[in-house]
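Tip: read the tokens left to right.
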């Protein structure tokens, strides 16, 4: 769905990471795990919109937490209060589609966020909190600058950084002890998701942030390999996902 919103703020949190709030119509509704595809430029460079997970959503606004990595995100970082943003969304399915309250009642719920994958997981963490469902958050990034503890105040969280500058030192996945009563929801680099595939758990549900072109199911640039038996198939992350049962995905 094509939408328009007004920038409320676009704050620089550190050298490369920004926190953007967009005022949207009251009728706008999104679920955790969904994303929006933003037209970041008023000219044709870059031509394609850029996808961002919804970091937070309350009635009348959505928040995005993003890292400047190239031309598109640089242009987004130049947006000012009152600027109009044109975006498509919400797009994709949700963690909530995989959340069966009865089945999950007796389980330990772990959320795992790697780098900017924190945005997507944060929205789900807020959803669980609102529903008074207990969970533990495992949050990993390269270094202290890329960890946003201020957004974790009400969470039971374990933090790890590659260089040990915040929380424990090492990959966040090395601090997760799963068992048959654990359900893992995760979002982050594919290397992290691949490691999580080998952690013992009752279920593992992951949101993928593949490179996207159209974000509308047409160009196939976002496909991942799916294996539900002997045959494998491809799924479009933007259309069938972004959230999948991690055991069904073949990560190369
Ligand atoms: C569903 C989805 C949700 C996303 N949510 C967020 C988010 O919440 N916060 C955030 O900071 N980013 C998020 N991203 C990534 C974000 O869309 C890209 O960083 C952005 O499109 C880069 O645009 P650019 O023009 O600045 O960079 P480009 O010039 O297009 O690329 C610059 C560099 O970034 C790398 N890059 C671009 N896209 C991706 C990607 N999808 N995955 C890994 N590397 C990439 C390129 O390889 C290149 O090295 C998400 C991506 C998807 C598909
Ligand atoms: S991005 Fe074009 S099909 Fe998914």
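Filled-in amino acids:
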């Amino acid at each position: 769905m094509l939408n328009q919103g007004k920038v409320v703020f676009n704050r620089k949190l550190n050298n490369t990471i920004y926190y953007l709030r967009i005022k949207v119509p009251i009728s706008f509704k999104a679920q955790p795990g969904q994303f929006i595809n933003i037209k970041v430029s008023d000219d044709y460079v870059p031509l394609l919109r850029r996808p961002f997970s919804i970091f937070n959503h309350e009635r009348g606004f959505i928040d995005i937490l993003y890292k400047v990595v190239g031309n598109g995100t640089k242009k987004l970082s130049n947006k000012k209060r009152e600027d109009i943003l044109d975006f498509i969304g919400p797009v994709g399915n949700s963690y909530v589609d995989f959340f069966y309250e009865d089945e999950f009642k007796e389980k330990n719920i772990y959320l795992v966020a790697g780098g900017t994958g924190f945005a997507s997981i944060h929205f789900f963490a807020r959803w669980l909190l609102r529903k008074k469902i207990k969970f533990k958050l495992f949050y990993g990034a390269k270094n202290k600058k890329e960890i946003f503890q201020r957004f974790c105040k009400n969470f039971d969280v374990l933090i790890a950084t590659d260089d040990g500058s915040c929380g424990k030192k090492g990959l966040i996945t090395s601090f997760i002890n799963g068992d048959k009563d654990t359900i893992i929801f995760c979002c982050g680099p594919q290397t992290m998701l691949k490691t999580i595939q080998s952690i013992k758990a009752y279920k593992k549900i992951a949101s993928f942030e593949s490179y996207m072109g159209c974000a509308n199911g047409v160009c196939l640039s976002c496909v991942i390999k799916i294996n539900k038996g002997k045959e494998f198939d491809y799924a479009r992350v933007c259309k069938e996902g972004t959230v999948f049962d991690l055991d069904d995905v073949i990560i190369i």
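Residues 35, 46, 50-53, 65-67, 69-73, 116, 119, 209-212, 242 surround flavin-adenine dinucleotide (ligand 1) (CB under 6 Å). The chain has a mean pLDDT of 95.
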